[in-house]
Each structure stands twice: as C-alpha cells, then as structure tokens.
Amino acid sequence: MEQMGGKHILLGVTGGIAAYKSAELVRRLREAGAEVRVVLTRAGAEFVTPLTFQALSGQTVFGGSPEQAAPESAMEHIELARWADAILVAPATAHTLARLSHGLADDLLTTICLASDAPLAVAPAMNRRMWNNKITQSNIDRLRTCGVHLFGPAEGEQACGEWGAGRMLEPEVLIQRLAGLFKTPLLAGLRIVVTAGPTLEDIDPVRYLGNRSSGKMGYAVASAAVGAGAEVVLVSGVTSLARPDGVAFVKVRSAGEMHNEVMRRVTNCDIFIAAAAVADYRPAARIDRKIKKNDAPLALELVPNPDILAEVARLANGPFCVGFAAETERLAEHAEAKRVAKGVDMIAANQVGRPGIGFESDENALEVFWSGGRATLPRSSKTEVAHRLIELIGQRYNSAS
Question: By C-alpha distance, which of 257, 255, 357, 244 is closest to 302?
C-alpha cells in the first residue's frame, strides 16, 4: 500500500483477547512497507508475549513489565513519540479508552500518546454491553472531540459467545484506515451545508407540530465532514445537543426559517446533506393566544411547507445533494422512489421503529441509494455510521465530478 511505504507506525497493544490479531497486524504493516514498533501494556503482555512482536517487527518491544522490556533511556517516551508518524492502539480496551479520554499518563503507552503530535487512532475491542455503556460512549465522544480517530468496532460474534458491536476490525481493514491518515482528506477544500434536528411549527404560544428527531445523526454527519477536511455550515433545528466543533452554526425553529437559511447558502456550496426531520406541514395561521381546551372537536388547517431538498436539487449548477429517508416499511422501494422524485444524487434511508436505532437513539443503520448503486452501513454508533456515510459521499462526489 503506497501510503504506508517508509511510515513509522507505533502500535499499542492492550489487554484484550483481540491482541492475537495484533500480531498479524504487525506482519501486514511490514508487508505494506511500514516500520513498526510495538508498545505493550502489562495486561497486553499477558495475551501475547513481547518475543512474538519482536520477531514479527524486527524491533525491540517496549513496555510490558520491567523484566520483559526494560527502558533503554529515561526519555524513552519522548523518543518514541517523536519517532512515530502515527500511533494505533489495537486492541483498545474500554479501560484504555477511559484512560486516554481523561488524559492519564500512567504507563508508557498513554504517556507516548500524550507526548506525540502524530495522529492517534484507536481500534476498540470489548463486549457489546461494555461498548454500548453510556460511560464508554461518553469517553469515545471525548476522544473524537480531541481529534482521536476511531477505527471500528465491527459487529459479529464475540469471544464471550454474544453477538453485537465490539469486535476489533480485521488487520487489513485497520491498515486501510491507517493509510487514510496519510492521504489528503477526502473532502479537503469542499464547502458543505448540513441540516439537522427537527423543525417546530407553532400552533399557538404554547403548542407546536414537530417531528421526532434528536439531531444526533445530523450533528454526527457535520462532525464527520469537518474531520474529512470540509468547511461545514450546520443549519440546526431546536435540539439539546452541544454545537459540534469546527462548524459554522445556524439555529432555526421552523421549516420556513430552515428553508431561508439553506437557500442563502447552497448556491455557494459543493455538497448539501439534508439530515433534518423537516415538518411537511404547518398551521395555515398561527393563533396569538393559547387555545383553551373544551369538549368540542378542534380542527386545524395545515398547509405544505417548502420542500427544501427538492428545491435545492432543482437549482441550476446546484450542489451534490444527499437526502435522508425515515421509513417504517418497504424501505428500499420508498427510499428509491424519494430519490427519483426529488432528483437527488443520494438517499440515506433508515427503518425507524426498530428497537435501539433511529430516533433519539445513539445507534443507527443506513441503506444508501444512488443511480445504479446501493450500499449498506450496518448498525453502529451514529458517530461511526456518519463517518462511513461521509466516506461514501466523498467517493460518489469525486466520481461524479
């Protein structure tokens, strides 16, 4: 792999059963032309011995226990931090992720991670319940905010016999992701407008119509686009989420406000990603006083809101358009019909109503459609799904340019 030729890769191996894959990872990295040095934690050395990694890497193995791998100098962590072009922790246990996310430097590996300016990537590996635990997800969010690259995890059968997210990615996939750190960012220099969250249509001063949306997916997409090198404007409905780092942020309430803010910006952007749950209808007239409850039926006249996605797609010389479709049945049929009807380049569809994914959840799964093609993004955290979606959008955009 061209990007890996001559690169200095520092591999951190921590104490999980997936450490056996790390030996194969070292071999594959060397085949790709990289020079590899391994730092073992004491727990990691309980799973694979330093001698194994020394034989595969052709280098001294660092860490483990003092009797297994003694320091060569008092400034070993600084020397290794300067040497590395990239640091990959694989496997990265829940314990290691927690230590890294809080800036602890209580062993050689975590000290190197703090002392290095090189890109840092982690490949999580743990039981699915540990991965889904809110504390672990909070630590992951903190690491992403600090610029740490998350490689995985994958779904599948686990050593404990359970099935779910938490498997370490396979060595060949990790090398591909690692090589991507040395490429020009996929969306470098591109301007992207992302919509997220619900729109709220006021009925009276205390009531409104709206869609179920936390905004988590759209915010994750905006963050992933920033990470891919894009200049991002996020037009957000009302959410309780923290503003993502690195975006120009515009907050709106109604579909009309979102329409106006989007149309002001899309003529000067390259890609438009419509992840917001925009209300299809609004009350024909807003009542300026609270409607009092009584026993009589209440009728509301509703009128259609602007179709923001379709309007952007119709623009002459408009941006590459990506829509979202939340479906409850016949997902592929309805999503493809929406793509064609609105004239957009791509549609990302998810089946809402399934337990644990979609609205208000921290996980999602998408089926992505374009003319003549389709891709499945399997269930994972919305952050991971967003990164995979941005990679796919970047590939489709570049092939269409």
Answer: 255
Q: Give yes or no: residues 124 and 260 share one domain.
A: no
Q: What are phi and psi of 298, to 5 degrees?
A: -115, 125
Tell me the residue range of the domain where 88 lies: 2-180
CA atoms in the 13 A half-sphere facing the CB of 197: 22
Residue 397 to residue 401: CA distance in whole angstroms: 6
Q: Across residues 225-237, what is the average pLDDT?
A: 91
Catalytic residue flag (residue 160): yes
Residue 286 is predicted with a pLDDT of 85
pTM flag (> 0.85)? no
Per residue in 298-312, pLDDT tens? 888 999 999 999 999
Averaged pLDDT of the chain: 89
Q: Could you say which of 113, 160, 269, 321 is catalytic? A: 160
Same domain, 272 and 370: yes
- Tell me the angle at which helices 216-227 and 382-400 cross, rounded to the nearest 10 degrees: 60
Q: Is the pLDDT of residue 65 over 60?
A: no
Residues 125 and 62 grouped into a single domain: yes
User: What CATH number did the domain enclosing 271 receive?
Assistant: 3.40.50.10300
- Quick check: is 251 in a domain? yes
What residue spans of 184-307 are helical by DSSP H? Answer: 216-227, 255-265
Q: Where are the beta strands (DSSP E) in 78-225?
A: 86-92, 120-124, 149-150, 154-157, 163-167, 191-196, 200-204, 207-210
